[in-house]
Specification:
Shape of chain A: globular
Largest sheet of chain A: 9 strands, mixed
Strand order of the largest sheet of chain A: 16-13-12-11-7-10-9-8-17
Oligomer: homotetramer
Structural class of chain A: alpha/beta
Helix content of chain A: 25-40%
Largest interface: A-B, 52 and 52 residues
Strand content of chain A: 25-35%
Radius of gyration of chain A: 21 Å
Order of helices and strands of chain A: EHEHEHEHEHEHEHEEEEEEEEEHHE
Chain lengths: 333, 333, 333, 333
């Protein structure tokens, strides 16, 4: 297979390296409008082919896969072109700038029989896969809440606000782990510089059965926090991505709720027990993801992070943006 | 001076011990409806005087100070009686169950020339006093946000929800450090047991100049987190109360926002620098607070955490409760 | 029972409070040469009986237990007097200033039918008791090493060096957990002030079967570290006493050693697995210890931390001191 | 310049990548006896030149630099050949298997006018360079101790023990920061598998003026610890390499030692103050080191980590091995 990687910025070298390491991949072409970036790629990957004209590359007959690592606003246009040229697409998160765009890409890919992969990289980490396994096993009991904090001193993304930049990670993890649709969204936040883009935001999601999810994303934090809490009746998970090895901790803590017989009195009792930090697969998530994508192409299967998964995230992002512009107004999904 | 401590539950022994250690305090009477608790006090404090009738004790002529450590719903009634009996009052947080109650107590105390102290203990920690000093010095520049998380597996408080139980700590710290009124409140949360009391809640406060404050309080968390971030243009503070010694960290990090001359283009640049963790006074906060209270009585001065400070907190609690019952509706203050 | 606590310094109030809380203890007399300290005890424990003449108190017929919390150099003399006066003795660690002193106290107590308790408090923590249970169960396999670090910026003890001050904690934990005698000791260290007392020291102990133990004690460290690693063939323990709740972590990590059949080639393979942090009993160790002591008196049983346990620790301290004065010379025990 | 990298194991790809990224480096030839490793290099670095015959490559006229990343036992032979062939040498740590070997290489390089660089990578980290700056400025006052722990569950190195594998990192950091020769060495440790190589070891070094250094290296630890404490009269440093950003912390803590006038009584007082965590340069250490090496060649300067620096470390390793075989015997250097 031949792969075209469009966009050789921050994440580009990782994409190129991981596709190059796949046995099924023969070569990679790196595209970018910026010739200096391409020169760096040629130095790092020792004479790799490069191009400043991605349209020309997309049109070439020897390219099988198009990887899109450009600004979000361009995802839809490039992916549409690539799909219509018969290429499988690997799109960086967030998938598109709107629900309508995502829906159109899903439809075209289905019609053309092509694979659409959204790079929700975290889904392929050992940590998230282990949490999925634990939740599926029923070990947490009924779910109470999903609470996520992702903050640091971030480089401002000039085309999107902090929600579009950081929340896709956590929303995709949530979507994968909870496996149920959010019913309503409310978001608050502010921007502190003249560009009108929020740099701090809080999102609350309502689900059925009093399940609640909450997200804090922040570009103005002095330290890096990447922590998710998932609470259930039987046990609870703390997922701290800044930990070197013990990223996932499962606490045998929960509450027992009973009603005294014949009395309208609720008895709540805490159970506290051991904490287990399971062994996690250490393989690089992007290596797992790119291999999974290539396997899905070869075996005609749907990727775990397919267009629908990308759309679920974009739908919440779009609603959050409406809510935040209306000072936290509740948006039904 | 003679002190009556009403309520010998969880916090009672700490109150008794700290008042006993003051040079100005001659003796303490412990009151509680539960005789078993009083027996424990007599064992721990070696023959201390106790009573199950706090009304009688309040009426005694030899009592100068009444300390109220009973459930919130009873604060107003007991404090009013004590004030009308001419006693200075030390009230546990939150001050009262409503704004109206707090306002009445403030008015009576002023009229009678008595001191009203609300036990926002954290204000008297070395950490919070140091942060006040840093913020007052202008070192943070303009303030951007105040973000607080206070979660753990908590004993359910059967008379109040998690906001009334945990948020008073952080709201009082915020009120003290920011020194400006919140303009609007929005709160979301859920309850997961049959008693109708929220066990998880998120509160957002809006201030002038895009300053935003956010609070996460949670009784269902498997681990204890007590962390506050305060961001400004010039530097930022991380306050982690679970740290043994380095509770306060000041990061010389911030952003420079400039507009290119003659161009409507905003340039944002990060500055990152050193981190400083200042030495903190290690004295027990309750010792500092009780001594301050007694000093205020003797020198006829207003306590730092007076009735107004208690009222500011209760006002936000009351509005948060209305908002949470209306799925996050924005409440102007 | 009536208890005399001799020495009302740093640890004194904790001893008084814990003995006072026992149902079997009727009253406590606090003794100290320093009247100011006694005044503080009378204020804190509301009119408790005090005395500056411990000899007189030891001689009183109504005293059943003598608690010795004075400088180490005086332990032997006071304990001997108390035993000869027919009192059960509770001695702070280290038990005595020499092996000979410890042996004499053990002998007198045995002869007089009295209980000798050495306050190796850590043995009564939930953490150490849980580790004992885990090691006894065989979960660690064969033991490889015991490595302990106990450092902080400590107040200089003017009568003993850092080994006598800090190492008794870790040596008593080691003695309890390993349950086997050290065969040889080597210690290095230095002193940096004119008093000739080492403020940094390292101790290595040799045991049978290549088991090794090592201790780092340091009064000049800028931060507090209290960490012990215990390694075995099957799993390993990390015990971090500065952690609030997860003090004990058991790692399912170890090595498999095999020899290829017919070949003199050793194959070593690592096994890495989950980590478990067991729930620990949170009761105050001194409460458990004092109750255990009183129970041993009432039921005529030997305390877990008896004179022999105290002697084991003193023997290593004494040998370490000889080794350190001889630049690390190996001392056979 | 053209570079030959001999040894394409664990560290090889990092060496190749960093030399490739230098402007002065035109191309890299990767050598290894294992053809599978070379195939991986060709895939990762897209058609890079490879060879299984490093002797032939060393002999080529177009090669300027030989990088030696092979087992320690082969360093001397390969480096000697390369130097005699007129190549500058970049040698992985530890430099050689003996003091005699190191001395010979230094002599040959000096005679031939070639640069010898020992890859003590840590010296080029922002953390170590910042600590050097702090210590040189006198901020720590007189030095008291250097204490280092480097432990983890490590892959057994079949040709060397844990001292030769792990201690070179810390010894090189110590040598660089203290800048003075150790006077005596004592080492203890054990091996737990049949191969006779120690897997746990403790090294103590004596210096002039009661300065002491201690090292704990361990392949059998369940968790990764990389921590160094450096104590001085005025302040102290904690260097924790597992921390993501705050690797270096400077504590304004120390002791004041005075002698009361006319009295032989030493007064020791602690000073405790703020803690500062300085901003560190984040550039990859190997990028800094390789660039420094190439700069030294071009400008005919001595590298910071030259042959003498490599020899200082090997001298302590050699003495430690003798000491450990003699149960901790003190070896004068």
């Amino acid at each position: 297979m031949k792969v075209a990687v469009i966009g050789a910025g921050y994440w580009g070298p990782n994409l190129i390296r991981n596709f190059l390491m796949l046995d099924e991949v023969e070569s990679v072409v790196a595209c970018d409008l910026d010739e200096a970036r391409l020169a760096k790629m040629r130095k790092l990957f020792h004479g790799i082919e490069t191009s400043t004209d991605h349209n020309e590359v997309i049109g070439r007959g020897d390219i099988d896969i198009v990887v899109i690592a450009t600004p979000v606003s361009t995802h839809h246009e490039i992916a549409k072109k690539a799909l219509l040229a018969g290429k499988h697409c690997f799109i960086e998160k967030p998938m598109t700038a709107s629900v309508a765009e995502a829906e159109e890409l899903i439809e075209i890919a289905a019609r053309e029989g092509l694979k659409l992969f959204v790079d929700h990289t975290f889904i392929y980490t050992g940590a998230v896969r282990k949490m999925k396994e634990i939740i599926t096993s029923g070990r947490l009991g009924d779910l109470y809440y999903f609470d996520s904090v992702r903050i640091n001193l971030g480089l401002f993304q000039h085309d999107v606000n902090v929600i579009w930049d950081l929340a896709p990670h956590d929303l995709s993890i949530m979507d994968y782990l909870l496996g149920q649709p959010a019913l309503a969204v409310s978001a608050t936040g502010t921007c502190h510089v003249g560009n009108g883009l929020e740099d701090i935001a809080y999102i609350t999601l309502e689900f059925a059965n009093n399940l609640i999810a909450h997200f804090h994303v922040n570009w103005l934090a002095p330290m890096k926090i990447r922590r998710t809490l998932i609470g259930g009746t039987k046990s609870m998970i703390v997922y701290d991505d800044t930990e070197a090895s013990e990223k996932v901790k499962v606490y045998d803590k929960g509450i027992d709720v009973t009603t005294r017989e014949g009395v309208y009195d609720t008895l709540v009792q805490y159970r506290t027990g051991d904490m287990l930090s399971p062994k996690l697969d250490q393989e690089e998530a992007l290596a797992v993801g790119t291999r999974h994508f290539v396997d899905c192409i070869l075996n005609d299967q749907q990727p775990t992070t397919d267009g629908q998964s990308g759309l679920n995230v974009v739908r919440i992002l779009e609603a959050s943006e409406i809510s935040i512009k209306n000072r936290g107004q509740l948006i039904e999904l």
